[in-house]
Structure formats: structure tokens, C-alpha cells
């Protein structure tokens, strides 16, 4: 008898691909055949970055690709063109792929799992009458709840019907939920007003399509976001989805990782190293980059700093920086982040607050220094600083720069107050208990697996 066949479709971005890949590997271990569908561009990046090919064997998770209809990387970096191309081109390409797979012996698709942001894929599932459909949300439940509350935000005069923010104000959907500035709503802090309106329409459409699904699951936990899950009970937590839970390595990275940094960490004292990483999209100007560099030097603490090639190729370090820092600092182009955060030498995580990074830091009991850039990262920062109280944010000066003095002071404050580490350790225990036998996320995942198999 052939294995049940799941087709999984992530939104084409690093922060979306990795958690759905982790979910897919989890399903493959439970006896499913999984076909993982990336855009051709993302597929090529993943294959180039892979050092361990065991997870893409045909009997495990099979990687395939479809065109996204875009010509250049510049277009892919623009959310407006990306969202338009996805809806115009990938819809038909996915339909063609599923029909092709369904004609192969023993390969008929029994379940489609798509990123909630890929509402078009959910439409394809409905059109092709796929029996079981699951939407996967890779970010905080609170971010999805905010999307579901768009009609309420319009009714209360906080935003226009096209998503335009009417005035800058702090918004809290319920007590014990993150506080967010209205101008930092996910669609309102990216690009110009035209791009923001297109993103808003895209999000409205995907939220509507989320109602088409049988299950809506989220890479989070009840314990971390009780109010968000109470507000929208149809969202079910199955997180944290971590490679360490299956005793494996992370999969789905778009860049080759530099694992030599783990040897460097081995030589550092416990709880001594500042780990600095800003994800796959954060951009710095030269002034801000150099202020951060000098702050890390002035901290007189060892630091591991992930500096992507697209940053280091374009912005110089301060003069004589490498000589002065010496072996106290290590800069790498991409790090095996889950392994790094699990290392006993790590003292804190200076992060852009992407949700994957947030979950990885929380799951290792690491306190945060928060430097959000865009999208949902401001909501995550509020969770870290205001709700869970396991980190500190930075204040910008009148020129919009976070100065070296501000960074150095916040490092000293965070690492000088043992309560941050104590709360982070408690949060880790809550996060990891829920994925163990008998935990809430574990129970929901088991129920989902039984439903797909039934």
C-alpha cells in the first residue's frame, strides 16, 4: 500500500520555507510521502546550500520547483511584484504539477499543506477537490489574529478600507497581547503607500482563503500566546518546530552555513558570547553598521556576528576593526543558528526578532536584545520585551540611528540583570514541555496526523 502523499507549499522567503520544511520532515517521519514545492529560484538556493542531502531523498521529503514568473532578484525582493506574480503565475503552475503527480501510480495527492500567505494554493486545492487541506502559519498567532481583526480596525477608525493608517497610535487587541504601533502593522511598514496597499489586499485575500481549510496550524504554543489562541480558537499550535526535537540539523536554509563557528564557541566561557544575527532581509546603512560594529568592540565581550555577504560586500568595517577585535569577535556569512543558540557559551541574542529566531532563542532559554526591521518583527519584539520580559529593545536617536553607546548600555543592562536569564529559562521549560509526550502541541500534532491518515 502506498504512503499518503502530502504536497507542501511555502511562501517563497527564508522565514517561511524553514518552518514548513521542519513540519514536512516531522510528517515524513510519521510515514507520509511529502512533495515540497518551492519556486525555481528558492529551490536552486536550497540545493546549493545543502551539505546534508539525507532529508531530500525521494522516500523522505522530495524537493520540486515551479516557476514564479519573475525575471530578476530585484523583482523578488519587491513584495509588490512578488505578490502579484505569485497570484498570476504560480496558481496555474501548481495546478499543473498536482495534476501531473496525480497521474503517477501511487502518487495521488491526499492532503495539501500551504503557508497561510499562499491563499492561491488553497484555492487550487478547492478547485482540484483535494480531500484534506491544511493552512500553516509560520509566525506568531498574534500576527494572524491582527490580520483577522482588519474589519475591526477599519470599524474603529484606525485604518482606512485600503489599509492606510489614519493616525499613529499604540494598539493592543486584548490584555496580555503585544502592543504595536499602528504605523508598524505588517502591511504598513514596507515600501511606499502603493506597495502597502497591494500588500494589504494580498493579506485580506489570504485571510479570506484561510477560511477554506480544514485545519489552521501555527508554529507557536498555547503557553506563549494564550490570549491570541483564545481570541481565535480555530488557530491550533503545533510548535515550536525545531530540528533539535528530532535530533537532526536544520533544513531549508537558503545560504551555506559556516559550522566552524561552533569550534570557536567551544573555546569561550559559559554565558559569555553575544550572538548577533539579523535574518535574511535586514538592511543597514553604513553609519548604522559601523555603530553596531563599534558597540560590539566596546562591549569587551566575545561576540559571534552573522554578516551576510550582501552586507559585507557593500559596507566596510571601521578602519583597523579586525586587528583590534582579534579573536574576541568572529564574523561569519551564515551560522547554524539552532546549534549556536543551544551552545552553553551564548549569553544573549541580538536579533531582528523574526519569529523563527524568536522561537529558537526562547527554546534555548536565551535573553534577547531586540532590533526589529519590518513586518511582524515589531509584534515579536513586544512579546519579548513587554509580555514575556526576556529582552530589551533599543532607542534610536533623532537621526534614526541606534548609537554605539545605546547598544553598549543595553548589553550591560541585559547581562547585568539575572532576572532576564531566569525568566528566559522558565519560558524555555514551558516551550519544550508542550512538544513532549502529553504536551498540548504534541497532542494537536498527533490528532492532525491521524486525521490526514484517516
Automatic annotation (TrEMBL):
Show where the Glycosyltransferase N-terminal domain sits.
6-146
One Gene Ontology MF term = quercetin 7-O-glucosyltransferase activity
Gene3D superfamilies according to UniProt: Glycogen Phosphorylase B (3.40.50.2000)
Q: What domain of life does the native source organism fall in?
A: Eukaryota
The protein's matches in InterPro entries, at most eight in alphabetical order, are given as: EF_Hand_1_Ca_BS, Glyco_transf_N, UDP_glucos_trans
Question: What keywords is this UniProt entry annotated with?
Answer: Glycosyltransferase, Transferase
According to its UniProt record, the EC number is 2.4.1.324
Q: Does the keyword Transferase apply?
A: yes
Family classification:
Belongs to the UDP-glycosyltransferase family.
Q: What is this protein called?
A: Putative 7-deoxyloganetin glucosyltransferase
Organism, by scientific name, is Rosa chinensis (China rose)
Amino acid at each position: 500500500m502506498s504512503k499518503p502523499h502530502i504536497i507542501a507549499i511555502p511562501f517563497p522567503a527564508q522565514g517561511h520555507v524553514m518552518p514548513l520544511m521542519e513540519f514536512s520532515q516531522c510528517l515524513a517521519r510519521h510515514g507520509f510521502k511529502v512533495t515540497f514545492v518551492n519556486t525555481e529560484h528558492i529551490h536552486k538556493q536550497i540545493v546549493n546550500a545543502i551539505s546534508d542531502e539525507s532529508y531530500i531523498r525521494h522516500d523522505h521529503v522530495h524537493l520540486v520547483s515551479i516557476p514564479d514568473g519573475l525575471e530578476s532578484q530585484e523583482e523578488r525582493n519587491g513584495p509588490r511584484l512578488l505578490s502579484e506574480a505569485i497570484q498570476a503565475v504560480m496558481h496555474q503552475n501548481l495546478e499543473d504539477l498536482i495534476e501531473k503527480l496525480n497521474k503517477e501510480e501511487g502518487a495521488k495527492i491526499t492532503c495539501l499543506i500551504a503557508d497561510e500567505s499562499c491563499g492561491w494554493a488553497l484555492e487550487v486545492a478547492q478547485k482540484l477537490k483535494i480531500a484534506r487541506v491544511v493552512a500553516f502559519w509560520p509566525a506568531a498567532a498574534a500576527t494572524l489574529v491582527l490580520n483577522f481583526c482588519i474589519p475591526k480596525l477599519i470599524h474603529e477608525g484606525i485604518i482606512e478600507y485600503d489599509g492606510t493608517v489614519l493616525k499613529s497610535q499604540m494598539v493592543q487587541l486584548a490584555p496580555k497581547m503585544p502592543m504595536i504601533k499602528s504605523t508598524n502593522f505588517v502591511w504598513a511598514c514596507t515600501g511606499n503607500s502603493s506597495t502597502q496597499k497591494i500588500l494589504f489586499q494580498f493579506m485580506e485575500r489570504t485571510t479570506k482563503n484561510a477560511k477554506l481549510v480544514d485545519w489552521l496550524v501555527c508554529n507557536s504554543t498555547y503557553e506563549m500566546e494564550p490570549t491570541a489562541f483564545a481570541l481565535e480558537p480555530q488557530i491550533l499550535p503545533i510548535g515550536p518546530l525545531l530540528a533539535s526535537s528530532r535530533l537532526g540539523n536544520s533544513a531549508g536554509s537558503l545560504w551555506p552555513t559556516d559550522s566552524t563557528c561552533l569550534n570557536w564557541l567551544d573555546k569561550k566561557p559559559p554565558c559569555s558570547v553575544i550572538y548577533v544575527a539579523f535574518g535574511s532581509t535586514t538592511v543597514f546603512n553604513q553609519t548604522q553598521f559601523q555603530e553596531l560594529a563599534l558597540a560590539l568592540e566596546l562591549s569587551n565581550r566575545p561576540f559571534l556576528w552573522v554578516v551576510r555577504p550582501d552586507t559585507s560586500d557593500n559596507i566596510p568595517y571601521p578602519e583597523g576593526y579586525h586587528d583590534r577585535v582579534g579573536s574576541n569577535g568572529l564574523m561569519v556569512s551564515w551560522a547554524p543558528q539552532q546549534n549556536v543558540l543551544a551552545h552553553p557559551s551564548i549569553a544573549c541574542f541580538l536579533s531582528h526578532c523574526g519569529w523563527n529566531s524568536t522561537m529558537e532563542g526562547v527554546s534555548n532559554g536565551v535573553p534577547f536584545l531586540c532590533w526589529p526591521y519590518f513586518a511582524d518583527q515589531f509584534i515579536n519584539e513586544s512579546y519579548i520585551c513587554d509580555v514575556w520580559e526576556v529582552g530589551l529593545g533599543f532607542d534610536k536617536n533623532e537621526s534614526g540611528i541606534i548609537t554605539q553607546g545605546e547598544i553598549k548600555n543595553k548589553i550591560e543592562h541585559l547581562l547585568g540583570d539575572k532576572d532576564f536569564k531566569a525568566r528566559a529559562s522558565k519560558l524555555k521549560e514551558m516551550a519544550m514541555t508542550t512538544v513532549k509526550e502529553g504536551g498540548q502541541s504534541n497532542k494537536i500534532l498527533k490528532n492532525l496526523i491521524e486525521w490526514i491518515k484517516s
